[in-house]
Design brief:
Layout: H1 19-36, H2 45-54, H3 59-76, H4 88-92, E1 96-101, E2 107-112, H5 123-140, E3 148-153, H6 164-177, E4 182-188, H7 192-201, H8 207-210, E5 213-215, H9 221-228
Helix pairs in contact: 1-2, 1-3, 2-3, 5-6
Length: about 260
């Protein structure tokens, strides 16, 4: 966690507001949230800024979302981190992997939808698994990076894998408690059946998140991924050089990998 005021918040650089404007709003937001919950003093300005951006720089809305996050975190992650013992079933399915970085320095997560089974899912464990994954991804982000890239592989996905409730739970966690962490999602090997489930899920995705999903045609798969990911950082199964590494294993090619105890 970076000490408050250690370095200046950079401008967003996307035309949505100047760095000075954001910095002033973050300062006002900090005064408000610290007055409501002392735990707010433990987070850095970059975290507050993510919540602020998620609510289009509206201080009041961002503050209430952040306070909701603090309350949720104490309940959902009472020990400060999710242990592997709590999520053995989901880890054993080997459905999420993490290795490599895209061209902007975002860590890459690969998730296999066909390895998740609705009938075997226990919701409490699944939500803990989602938190575990997001916390590990956030821990792997290099200094100055706040987002990650995801490749959602749906090859072989069918009715037994369709789990709308789990999808909505994961989406709720991502949007409300890890705002502005998702960079882009490449959906690959998408079967026609999935599009029926997508129509149900889509209305629950906020407008800022919807534009981050990219449906990739099989014939353009490697070329599309290479636009954002160097070949030496792309998983082997997509024509790259890196082997898949289960989310719970340290990446042997990443000397900066550290164990995590909570989102920073």
């Amino acid at each position: 966690m970076e000490p408050e005021g250690e370095r200046r918040l950079p401008s967003r650089g996307d035309g949505t507001g100047s760095g000075d404007s954001e910095e002033k709003k973050v300062a006002l937001m900090r005064i408000f949230v610290e007055g409501k919950d002392p735990a707010a003093k433990e987070v850095d300005n970059f975290m507050l800024r993510r919540f602020l951006r998620a609510r289009d720089l509206d201080i009041e809305k961002a503050s209430f979302l952040f306070l909701k996050y603090l309350k949720w975190r104490r309940t959902a992650v009472p020990n400060g981190f999710i242990s592997e013992a709590e999520i053995r079933k989901d880890l054993s399915q080997k459905k999420v992997f993490m290795q490599g970085f895209d061209k902007t320095g975002q860590p890459i997560v690969v998730a296999f939808g066909a390895k998740h089974y609705h009938a075997k899912r226990i919701m409490n464990e699944f939500t803990s698994f989602v938190i575990y994954v997001l916390d590990r991804v956030c821990a792997r982000m290099p200094t100055g990076q706040e987002k990650f890239t995801c490749i959602g592989d749906l090859k072989g996905w069918g009715l037994s894998n369709c789990d709308i409730r789990a999808c909505l739970a994961a989406l709720d966690i991502m949007q409300n408690y890890y705002p502005e962490r998702l960079g882009r999602v490449f959906l690959v090997h998408v079967p026609y059946l999935f599009m029926k489930a997508w129509k149900i899920i889509y209305p629950f995705i906020d407008k800022n998140t919807r534009k981050k999903f990219v449906f990739v045609e099989d014939r353009n798969l490697r070329a599309t991924l290479l636009e954002d990911i160097e070949e030496n950082q792309l998983p082997e199964i997509y024509g790259g050089k890196l082997p898949l590494v289960p989310i719970q294993d340290p990446d042997p090619l990443d000397p900066t990998h550290v164990a995590l105890k909570g989102d920073n």
